[in-house]
Write a structure and sequence with these properties.
single chain, mainly alpha, Lysozyme, 8 helices, 62% helix, 0% strand
Length: 160
């Protein structure tokens, strides 16, 4: 196993990483604007995939913050999967592709990001894999938390 591999705890709370993950917000916002995707779901995918650890390498070969697979990276023009900016940009571009492919169905998009379009097509929905079902629910929970946080932060700024 490569020395930079670090397993990610699935039980870590969103609160623990919200402050630490702020450094990625600018990159996330830029990619979201470019591909017309909401911020909170993208940040939720990063939390679920890597817990904001840009050095994570999965056993399947996915790399970086958003656990981009080499074939997906190549499809979206990403030459350096370890670059935070390129990893986020390529992954958000892939999310845009999935949103278009699954006609905006956010659950299918999350499942497709986790298992690939082929598995979602084969199962005609979210696969029977427990891991995928849990992943979709986890991302949706994180998305709700990040939406709430951004709304609260904006509200505090407006009332000051």
């Amino acid at each position: 196993m490569p020395p930079f591999f670090k397993s990610v705890s699935r039980s870590t709370s969103v609160d623990k990483y919200c402050e630490d993950s702020g450094e990625f917000d600018r990159l996330i916002v830029r990619a979201c604007r470019r591909y017309n995707i909401e911020f909170a779901p993208v940040k939720a995918v990063i939390k679920a995939e890597s817990a904001f650890n840009p050095r994570v390498l999965s056993l399947a070969g996915a790399r970086g913050l958003m656990q981009l697979m080499p074939a997906t990276a190549a499809r979206h023009g990403v030459n350096d999967m370890s670059s935070r900016r390129h990893n986020i940009k390529g992954s958000v571009r892939h999310l845009r592709y999935l949103l278009d492919h699954f006609h905006g169905n956010i659950c299918l998009v999350r499942a497709g990001y986790n298992t690939g379009v082929g598995a979602v097509t084969e199962y005609k929905g979210i696969s029977a894999y427990v891991e995928t079902q849990e992943y979709v629910q986890r991302v949706l929970r994180y998305r709700t938390a990040y939406r709430w946080r951004r709304a609260t932060t904006r509200e505090q700024i407006i009332t000051r």
